[in-house]
Amino acid sequence: MAATHTLLDPDTLSRAEPLGLFARRVVEGYRVGEHRSPFNGFAIEFSQHREYSPGDDPRHLDWKVLGRSDKYYIKQYEQDTNYVAHLLLDGSASMSFGSSSVTKIHYARGLAACLGFLILQQRDAVTATVFDDRPRETFQRTDSLGKIHNLCTRLTAFTPARPGNLRACLQDYASRLTARGIVVLISDLLDDPADFLQGLRRLSLTRSEVIVFQVLDREEITFPLEGNVRFIGLEDDSRLQTNPADLRKSYLAAFNEHQKAVRRVCEQCGVHYTLCDTSRPLAEALTGYLAFRSKAG
Amino acid sequence: MQFLAPAALAGLAALSLPVIIHLLNKLRVREVRWAAMRFLQTAAKKNQRRVKMQDLLLLILRCLVLALLVFAFARPTFEAVEKSSLVAGDPLTVMVLLDQSASMGASDGIETRFAAARTATLNFLEELPTGSAAGLLLVHDGYASPVSRPSRDLSLVRRSVELAKPTDRGTDFQPALRAAIEALRNLEGRREIHIFTDNQLAGWRALEPIREFLATAPDIRVFIVTPGAAAASTGNLAVTDLKLDTAIPVAGQPLRVLAEVTNFGDTPANGIRLTLAINDDAPSADAVISQLAPGGTRHVPLLVRLPGSGFHTLTASLPPDRLAFDNRRTIALEIAPARDVLVVESRRGPAAWQGTGHFLATALAPVEEEAASRHYLHVTRITGAELDPSKLSEYAVIFLAATEPLPPLVVTALAEFVQNGGGLVVMPGDATPAGLFLDTPWPDLLPATINPPSEPPDGTIEAGPYNYPLLTLWNDPAAGNLAALRFAKIFPLDPVQTPEVSTALRLADSSPVIMERSVGKGRVVLFAAPPVPAWTNLPLHPAFVPLMHRLYAATARASSLKLNLAPGDVFQAPVPIDQLNRDVYVRGPAEDAKPVAVGRTELVDTQAMLRARSTAAAGRYAVYVGQNERPDFYFAVQPPADESNLKTAAEDILTSPADPASGEPTSAAPAPPSAPLLTARQLWTIALAAAAFLSCAELLLALRSSRSR
């Protein structure tokens, strides 16, 4: 319960709840829900006719057409279903960086928990995976809001320690996706944009809707450090001693170039991209995105 | 190179400060675990080398700035000062020579050489060790001695330096150096002479005598300090001469004035406008010199008309440049009223043309008979028999034009007339036996012994150019020439061997035909032939009229007033005896000058005289006696022409054998004299300027590097 209290921010939830997270595309659920299904069923909204074939349930015969034309037609209706949201959380060592008490992994956990809560609350299903160079922690699919505590506990239990491999993880996950749903990727995306592109492209082929949240620390964005600093890599043992002021301009140029490449990859794959600055409140990033999503349709 | 404050060199230890700070910065490291190492490594790979180079350059610049500051505080000088007593700190006995010649007025656009030298002198006096004594001589073509002998009252010396002003006088270091050495010769302790000057080459005309004199005092050291001399521009246009080129200046008649303009610069000067003003009025004549080559001189004739008789000044002006004093040059002149001339002749008949002085009298007053009374020369023609010895003093010049023998009484009167300043022109002729001139007092009057007439083998005259002032007019081809002059018969002249005698014109075979002799206050000019066509074609030659007028001007009883002075000369003029003991006021050449009392008229012998001594500045002076509203006299002071040449001598001119004409050391000259004559120049201002420059460079580089990273 402690983990739930830590990750689920009431303010964020109260602001995000009215917005909801609805599927933009058709999704393949496993029960009736609020989202359009790719399958035609027998519900309320008429979709089309088709010729009767042996084995069809005679209850769905269009008797009016039979009476007028003496032909057997079956009435088909659109089917609404629920969706499954796949929360992919980057748990590589780089996510453990934080210039304040809020590290990137803290922020990402909170974001995943809030999204999970919102999705479960609207009776859709959630599954979550934490990965670094391969999937490490998996939370099985559930559509029960009561399981949110389990989700929070699993997310909190994971500690980033290894280097990541975004491309491999995304490709692996895409290969295991069986039904169209919504994939939410939460990562700092500090890998090579080319690798990211390959992973994202593979994921897009599943025809699932993909949403990317890039979580970055304020210091990574502005590089405000001063003095003589020895930098030690979080994912490898590389070291560099320098005066950050000497490299600031070049660093920011390289960083901004990388950010442009990430956005370009997302645009190429038709993916919603949201930058989350850990120095800003989570509610701001989440509600901002949900509002944009509800407006964009 | 040596340092006046070597203790300051300890400050070089401060050089370690930037290095220590640099190293401390390197050592003070904090560790940061960082996620985005990829971008950092990219940036480092791209910039690290440049950053290291910039850091190193900044470190070097900072060290250099500190080093230069320490260097400046240590007061570096050329090694010459090594032996100066300033370093030792012992009391010093010094004579300071401050150059106040006209060339010190040259400016570099900010300050004049004199201002720089005065500042340097004051700084030098400030630095003298405690207990030192100093004297001060102001150097020009002579010297002034505000503090003639070394005094321990340095504040008096400093005050004298502050009060010193530049003059328009020339430069000659010899008198001041002699005086300085004499002032130091019998004193004890370390003795030095410091000359603060622009080291103008013209000041070392007497270099060898100076060296010889310095050799007599080998323990007195001489230092030449040249503050500001290098900075000042050496380009200079100057009016180097201005003179009247008209024989007899007359009011209302055109006067030809010849101005000499010289370009002392290194580049040609174009479109030089020269103006001539009368009495400081607006320019009344001008001329433009299209181009003047470097080192070139141009004589520019200008025509003006003076408004009336009396004193006048003419001022030639050039556009302003960095050296002001020689852009203007003024001459003063006095236009006399009409003068009387006496022509004594012999006559063959009653008609005027039958007189031997006919051509001469006509040339002197070449106007119609009715206009002769209005002509500025009143010519009286008489025969020798009519000559009244008591009336000779009424005439300015007396011409003896082939006159008959004169009575001894008249000859004696003529001798007295010449002694008192009169002009006598003797032209022996047919009626004059050569032996006549052997009798006293003729031998004391004439410049030559006159021999019996003969026909010269070649009657042509010598070819020009002519150096004698009477004939220089014909050096200008525009004024004609004397080549056609012929002498058919002459009285051969044997010159008297005295310094007062000179030959104005000779025949081609060197026989003198015109000679001159100064006798007392007057002059006697002797011609070898009378002015009649039977002897010479001179009376028929176009040059005859101007020659006779110039002859008149050269021999006339001229005013004894010397109106054109050199700077520093004393102007003196006689005044009526009733003006004795009156105040004398002089208004100088400065634009805002007002009449200043300079003394009183005084009795000299039996004549009341006025004297004006403050003539240091060049230009036009007006002299007032008593309460007169109009000036009684004008006179002009003309600066020496060689001051305009700003060429400086080598700084070691006293120690190295040098050709004073070129300023370049001559290789074949003997070894330097024994006196350690050295040149001192402090470099701290240069070091300070360099430190400031490097500081700016460091600031800009730091700013630029912080922006580029």
End-to-end Cα distance of chain B, whole Å, is 43 Å
Q: Regions of chain A with pLDDT < 50 over 5+ consecutive residues?
A: none
Q: What is the number of domains of chain A?
A: 2
Task: Give Rg of chain A in angstroms.
Answer: 23 Å
Rg result of chain B: 36 Å
Strand order of the largest sheet of chain B: 17-16-18-19-24-23-22
Give the helix/strand class of chain A.
alpha/beta
Q: Could you please describe the fold and organization of this structure?
A:
The complex is a heterodimer of chains A (297) and B (709). Chain A has 297 residues and is α/β, with parallel strands linked by helices. In chain A, 39% of the residues lie in helices and 26% in strands. Chain A has two domains: 2-28 and 83-292, von Willebrand factor, type A domain (Rossmann fold, 3-Layer(aba) Sandwich), CATH 3.40.50.410; 35-81, no CATH class. Chain A contains ten helices and ten strands. Chain A has a six-stranded mixed beta sheet, with helices on both faces. Chain A has a two-stranded antiparallel sheet with strand order 1-2. In chain A, helix 2 packs parallel to helix 10, helix 4 runs antiparallel to helix 5 (148-157) and helix 7 (193-204) runs parallel beside helix 9 (244-268). The longest helix of chain A is centred in the last third of the chain and has 25 residues, at 244-268. The model of chain A has no long low-confidence stretch (mean pLDDT 84). In chain B, helix 8 crosses helix 11. The longest helix of chain B is centred in the first third of the chain and has 37 residues, at 37-73. In chain B, helix 4 links the parallel strand 4 (93-99) and strand 5 (133-139). Chain B has 709 residues and is α/β, with parallel strands linked by helices. Chain B folds into five domains: 2-77 and 688-708, no CATH class; 91-233 and 646-682, 3-Layer(aba) Sandwich (Rossmann fold); 237-334 and 639-644, Immunoglobulins (Immunoglobulin-like, Sandwich); 339-555, Rossmann fold; 564-633. A seven-stranded mixed beta sheet of chain B has the order 17-16-18-19-24-23-22. In chain B, strands 6-5-4-7-8-33 form a six-stranded mixed beta sheet, with helices on both faces. Chain B starts with a strand and ends with a helix. The A-B interface holds A 94-95, 97, 104, 188, 190, 217, 220, 225, 227-236, 238, 240-243, 245-251, 253-255, 258 and B 25-26, 28-44, 46-48, 51, 705-709.
